[in-house]
Design brief:
Elements lengths: L12 E6 L7 H11 L4 E4 L7 H12 L3 E4 L12 H15 L8 E2 L8 H10 L2 E2 L4 E2 L10 H9 L6 E6 L3 H4 L2 H9 L14
The chain binds zinc ion (ZN).
Length: 198
Amino acid sequence: MDPIQSTKDICSIVLTFDDGPNPETTPKLLDFLNENDIKVIFFVIGRNLITKQGSSIIRRAHVDGHIIGNHTFSHINLMRLSKPQIRDEIFRAHELICQYTETCVLFRPPFGVTNKAISQVLAELGYSQLFWNVDTMDWKYKKNAYWIDYGMKKINHYGNNIILMHDIYPTTVGNIRYFIERIKSIPNICFSIVEYQE
Ligand SMILES: [Zn+2]
C-alpha cells in the first residue's frame, strides 16, 4: 500500500452558497474560486435572475463548472403555502435557472424547512433536496469574520461536510480565502461537488 495514501478516500468538503446571486459580491467569489480551482454549489433565488446582471452572473457560474441549485423564486417559507403555491415558487425559479444550466435537479428549501407537500412537488419536478450539516452562521457572526472560527468548530475531520454560507455578504466573500486556508490545513481533506453532478 502506498504509504502516503489516505485512509479516507473521499473528498469531504462541499461548499454551498445560498441566496444569491448578488452583483457586488458573487462575481468576486467566482474570481476567487477560479483562481483556486474550487467548484461549489450555488442555491440561487429566482427573482435575483430577472435582471441582466443576475442572469449573466449565473451563466458565468455555470460555465465555470459550479452547480446551480434552486432556492425558490422569492425565498418564502414554503411551509406556509398551499401545494399549488409551493409548485409555483419552485417552478418559477426552475424556469429561470434552466435557461442557463443543462441540469436543474438540486433544491434547497429556504430556512431548511420541508414537509410532505414540498417533497411531493419536488419529486414531480425531478428535484432532490440538499440540506447542510455545517452552518457557518455567516449571516450572524460577521464581526471579525467570527463565522470562520464558528464554522471550523463544526467541521467533522473524518466525515462529509456540506457547508452553508451566503454569497450575498461582503464579510463572507471578503474573508472566504481565510476560511479555505483553514480548511486546507486539515489533513487529508479536499473539496468536491462531483457526487452532485449529473
Ligand atoms: Zn436561503
